[in-house]
Structure formats: structure tokens, C-alpha cells
Design brief:
By secondary structure, the protein is α+β, with helices and mostly antiparallel strands. 45% of the residues lie in helices and 17% in strands. The protein has helices at 43-57, 89-95, 100-114, 127-137, 143-155, 193-205, 208-215, 219-234, 240-253, 255-262, 267-270; strands at residues 5-7, 12-17, 21-26, 32-37, 65-71, 76-81, 87-88, 162-163, 172-175, 178-181, 188-189.
Length: 277
């Protein structure tokens, strides 16, 4: 395994946090940021760094990955080129809710551009293969439920374009006229609806307390973001109801990821699967 470079956290200041770890800004070099995983995660940051490099080399707008590092107390992470002055679309919406339509439309344009990118399928995982694996590993669904979900996944039309894999509106950032995707550890290829479903899940299906804590806004505002996103992404001729009916089962499939990470059933997300199981 690639050897990590030893660094000292004394040269970094905490700037944020997420499900897998924390982010830090470098004090001595403002052009560097550190994504540090929680203790015990050793291979995951290395895998994400290699994946992020491949995505960067494709020309997809994302901060340039730097090197695999480890702190003096044994936490592993990645150093990236820091985008100074950046703001995520979730934070921008929370800070300026009156501009929600503008931010949602801009984010939608980023997503449309991403989902047009053709991918070398020898270099990345197929999103359907990923969900088949998650389904097989899940202890929370019965065999009958797994068979029904497996058939749904199998019947989804194949596409060979980029899928972010964790397309929350907090995982796209901007500064000036520059736009970037971040947190690309789940990047793969396949049908775009698997990706757009995450936008719906985090803005509409998540609980109010999660949205407030994670995205710093009331759920009513995150729902408004989704409502503005839909016509910008799908076109003004598609109704919100029609889009949500199409997206719902894909959002429900995210249950497999959430339940894997939380190790407990998530009924608020499973409800989205009622049309399948």
C-alpha cells in the first residue's frame, strides 16, 4: 500500500465536518486544504485520492488532489488544492434564501454538464453493479424484497456517463465564475437518475433536524431549492409531480447506503420504495 506522508495538525485549523471526517485549512499555506478521515479509516482516503485523481484527469471540475497523509495520532487523509473563498450551493442558499432560484438553476446546469460526460467504463464502477452489491450485503431486507429491488435495478436503462455518487447540493461549490464538484469518493458511471435522486433525498425526504444541522436551513427552504432545481434540470415541460414519481424509487434505493452507514433501518427513506416492495 502507498505510504502516507506524516504531517502535524498544528499547522491546520478546523473548517468543517461530514459523515466520514473533517476538513482543515492549512495555516502556513492557504492554497492547501486537508480532508481528514475519522480514526480507523486507512484505505478509504487512499482509494478516494486515486479516484479523485482519475476524475480530475478527465477534466471534470474538481479541486486537484494532492497527497495521501497521516497525522501524528494516526488519522489518515488527503491534501487537496484549496479553493479560496468558495461556497457550497447549500451554504449559499442558507445565507441568501432570496436567491434560491438562482442557486438551484446554477447547480442544475452543473449537474446537466456532468451527466453528459462520457466515461471510460474500464476505469470506473457501474452504478447498477454498486447497488447490486449493496443489496446483497444488506441485512435489513428480506429475500422477497431483495428480489423485487434487484429486478428494478436490472430494468433501469444503462447509460455510460458520469455519476457523482453523492450529489448533495453541499457537494458542489463555486467562487466567482468557477464551479467545482467535491467529495467524489463514490464517483461511478450509469443512469443519471441514481444521481438526481440524492438531490431529492437530501432536500425533501430527509428529516427537518438533519437538514437544519447539515445544510443550515429549514426544510421548507430545501424543498424550495428542489422545486426550482426540477425545471432547470428536467425542463419546464415536466411537472414536479411527474418528476418526483420517477425519482422516488431511486431515492428509496439510497436506503441501502444510509442503512449500511447507520447500521439500522431507516423507515423515512424506505417509504420511497413502496412502489417496488
Amino acid at each position: 500500500m502507498e505510504k502516507a506522508k506524516l504531517i502535524s495538525l498544528s499547522d491546520y485549523v478546523l473548517s468543517g465536518g461530514g459523515a466520514n471526517g473533517e476538513s482543515f485549512d492549512c495555516i502556513s499555506d492557504p492554497s492547501v486544504m486537508l480532508k481528514l478521515y475519522f480514526p480507523g479509516k486507512i484505505q478509504q482516503p487512499l482509494d478516494e485520492m486515486h479516484l479523485a485523481q482519475k476524475v480530475y484527469d478527465m477534466g471534470i471540475p474538481t479541486p486537484e488532489p494532492g497527497e495521501y497523509v497521516v497525522t501524528e495520532d494516526g488519522r489518515y487523509g488527503i491534501r487537496f488544492h484549496r479553493i479560496v473563498g468558495k461556497k457550497s450551493y447549500s451554504r449559499a442558499t442558507a445565507d441568501e434564501p432570496e436567491r434560491v432560484a438562482e442557486f438551484a438553476a446554477d447547480f442544475a446546469r452543473m449537474c446537466l454538464d456532468l451527466h453528459k460526460v462520457k466515461v471510460d467504463i474500464t476505469q470506473f464502477e457501474n452504478v447498477k453493479a454498486r447497488y447490486f452489491r449493496l443489496l446483497e450485503e444488506s441485512p435489513f431486507f428480506t429475500k422477497t424484497e431483495k428480489d423485487a429491488l434487484g429486478k428494478f435495478i436490472s430494468d433501469v436503462p444503462d447509460e455510460y456517463t458520469a455519476v457523482h455518487g453523492d450529489l448533495q447540493f453541499s457537494n458542489a461549490i463555486f467562487v466567482g465564475d468557477k464551479r467545482y464538484f467535491i467529495d467524489l469518493g463514490d464517483f461511478c458511471y450509469g443512469n443519471h437518475l441514481f444521481d438526481v435522486a440524492m438531490v431529492y433525498l437530501c432536500t425533501c425526504l430527509s428529516k427537518e433536524d438533519f437538514i437544519v444541522e447539515t445544510f443550515h436551513m429549514p426544510k421548507s427552504l430545501s424543498i424550495r431549492f428542489w422545486q426550482e432545481f426540477v425545471p432547470a434540470y428536467f425542463g419546464a415541460d415536466r411537472s414536479l409531480k411527474d418528476v418526483e414519481e420517477e425519482i422516488m424509487p431511486f431515492a428509496g434505493l439510497k436506503t441501502l447506503i444510509v442503512e449500511r452507514d447507520t447500521r439500522c433501518p431507516m423507515p423515512e427513506f424506505r417509504a420511497a420504495l413502496k412502489g417496488i416492495i
